[in-house]
Design brief:
The chain has 11 helices and 18 strands. With 346 residues, it is an alpha/beta fold. It has 2 domains: 183 residues, Medium-chain alcohol dehydrogenases, catalytic domain (Quinone Oxidoreductase, Chain A, domain 1, Alpha-Beta Complex); 136 residues, 3-Layer(aba) Sandwich (Rossmann fold). The strands form 4 sheets. Strands 3, 7, 8, 9, 10, 17 and 18 form a 7-stranded mixed β-sheet that branches. A 6-stranded parallel β-sheet has the order 13-12-11-14-15-16, with helices on both faces. Helix 4 crosses helix 10. It is globular. Bound molecules: zinc ion (2 copies).
């Protein structure tokens, strides 16, 4: 079985690994359909780490995944060979304080595919066959494109950010960062009833691409600094801001641009542990700052909006490569000028 394995920064290898064997009672055996390359996969690829989590042993990458059921364990009901599924990479322990409080995505002992957060690392999904807990599998229609089904994970991230924001109906929304997550948050914000959506970006090519999407205003936050500074006047311009770039300056700017009584949702993980922020908006203008991490029940919601076509993500899917061309796929995905979401295919 072929697997896409990272050994350290820029050291991605295609390796032959043993077949996973028969599923246990509660498991299903899946054949790879499509897998989306995420920012965390790219961080492992380019830097050999995500934040504090270093690659300390060979790690099969990937957590955005859809595939086909090959075999089911004895206790599995509701899934059969031939079914297509989107896989929720969250596998919470169900007994820790966060899990008991109903926030499984904040589990203290999360088992998340393709992650070096714990040692031994938890191997990821970019491989030809895989055993998964049946509870993590969401059946999707037979005819759906595997790539669309594999978008359930980043879509769920975006829907969770929307949930953290509260109602968007009639709101003026700012999104900083027009990468895959910024674009999905934009689509989810439209779907949730935002009145206007403004997106900032720093890549010229990304801006050209964003101008093809249903966005009211696309602003180059470096060359159009004067425009950005006008948002800071009169106690801020936007009801809600979503920081999706991971850039600390973009976060500070979003806080200043958010109107009194508004809210800023941090979706992009800043690459550094501490960032300087303007404090006055929190106190004197009661701007709220909340974080948004992964998702919980939003995964099922994401599968639903994608399979019904209620949110059309096709504009975000820019490239696909066979699993064997993973190296090239990771290079293209690392180039923000070229690509949004890049998929590996069987
Ligand atoms: Zn992801
Ligand atoms: Zn837990």
């Amino acid at each position: 079985m072929l697997a896409t394995v990272i050994h350290g920064a820029k050291d991605l290898r295609l390796e032959e690994r043993p077949e996973p064997g028969a599923p246990a009672d509660h498991q299903v055996l899946l054949r790879f359909g499509a897998g989306g390359i995420c920012g965390s996969d790219l961080s492992y690829f380019n830097k050999g780490r995500v934040g504090d989590f270093m690659v300390r042993e060979p790690l099969c990458l990937g957590h955005e995944f859809a595939g086909e059921v090959i075999a089911t364990g004895a206790a599995v009901t509701g899934l059969k060979p031939g079914d297509r599924v989107a896989v929720n990479p969250n596998h919470p322990c169900r007994v820790c304080r966060a899990c008991v409080a109903g926030k499984g995505h904040l589990c203290y002992k999360m088992n998340f595919f393709g992650s070096a957060a714990v040692y031994p690392h938890i191997q990821g999904v970019f491989r030809e066959t895989l055993l998964v807990d049946a509870a993590q599998c969401h059946r999707v229609p037979r005819l759906i494109d595997f790539r669309i089904a594999a978008m359930a994970e980043p879509m769920a991230v975006s829907l969770h950010a929307i949930q953290r924001a509260g109602s968007l109906v009639g709101k003026d929304v700012l999104i900083t960062g027009g990468g895959p997550i910024g674009c999905l948050v934009m689509l989810a914000a439209r779907h949730a009833g935002a009145r206007s959506i403004t997106v900032t970006e720093v890549s010229d090519k990304a801006i050209d691409r964003l101008r093809q999407l249903p966005i009211d205003e696309v602003v180059h936050s470096l060359t159009d600094q004067a425009q950005v500074e006008r948002w800071y006047e009169n106690k801020g311009r936007f009801d809600l801001s979503f920081e999706c770039s991971g850039n600390p300056q973009a976060l500070a700017s979003a806080i200043r641009a958010t109107a009194s009584g508004g809210k800023v949702v941090i979706v992009g993980m800043p690459g550094v542990p501490e960032v300087p922020l303007p404090v006055n908006p929190f106190v004197a203008r009661e701007v709220d700052l909340v974080g948004s991490f992964r998702f919980d029940g939003e995964f099922a919601q994401a599968v639903d909006v994608l399979t019904r076509g209620a949110i059309d993500v096709s504009a975000v899917l820019t490239h696909s490569f066979p699993l064997r061309a993973a190296q090239e796929a990771f290079m293209v995905a690392s180039d923000r000028d070229q690509s949004l979401k890049v998929h590996l295919l069987a």
